[in-house]
Each structure stands twice: as C-alpha cells, then as structure tokens.
Write a structure and sequence with these properties.
By secondary structure, the chain is mostly helical. It has one domain (28-140). It has helices spanning 9-24, 28-40, 42-64, 67-73, 75-98, 103-106, 110-123, 126-135, 146-149. The longest helix is centred in the middle third of the chain and has 24 residues, at 75-98.
Length: 150
Amino acid sequence: MSEILPLSTATFLSFALAALLIELTPGPNMTYLALVSANDGRRAGFATVAGIALGLAVIGGIASFGVAELIQASSLLYEGLRWAGTLFLLYLAWEGWTAGTDVVSSSGNPGGKYFMRGLVTNLLNPKAAIFYVTVLPTFVEAGRPILAQT
C-alpha cells in the first residue's frame, strides 16, 4: 500500500480509524444534518452534506496555511468562533421553531439554502478546526513530503 499512498499502511489505518471515530461523534454538523434530513428529506440532506464537505475543504485549506493553529493559540479568536457557531445554531433553531410548514417551498432554491447553512455550520464549528490542528499533525511522518501526506 505504501507504493500507492505517500504514507505507511499503519499510519493510514490509524488515521482512518481516528477520522471515523471523530466523524461518528455527534456535533453541530451531524445534529443539523439529521434534523434537515428528517424534516425536509434526502435532497435537503444531500445539499447540506455538500455544504458541510465544502466547509471541511475550506477549513483544511486554511489549516494548511497555519491559520487554524493561530485560532487555537488565541483564546479570544477561538472563543469568538465558538460563540459565532453557537449563535448561528441558535438562530437556526429559532427559525425552525417559529417558521411555518412552508418555509422550504416559499424559497426559490431550497437546495441552495441548505447548502449555505451546511457550509456556515461547518465553518463555525471549532471541532473541525481542532481536528486539523491537533489530530492531523500526529499522522504526518517525518522525512516524507508533508504536502503529499495531507
């Protein structure tokens, strides 16, 4: 497997297990996705997943430039991000609680709404940034190209 992947088999399997455990841990993304899928169906769920996936890619890109590490090092920035995420989730909860049953049908592009909400929910999720700062570097092997491993 080392010929195919730029990291060892043991490192790859360890990373895959860590990523699986982290993804199975409930958080804002999973909670929002479950609510959207249960209430509004698969299409809304897929749009939300696409937004969440783009958010992960953006956070990964930002982390590769060291910004996520700066956020973790600064308690003010980290707390600001955490509270922004909390306020956004409270906004979504309030909107869901007070909205009528035709919220989705009244908008022109409901998929776009779910995509954007999935994206913002993930971008404001400190759990994703922490993963890239604390967990990912432990799987980067010294002596191998860093860019190829990440």
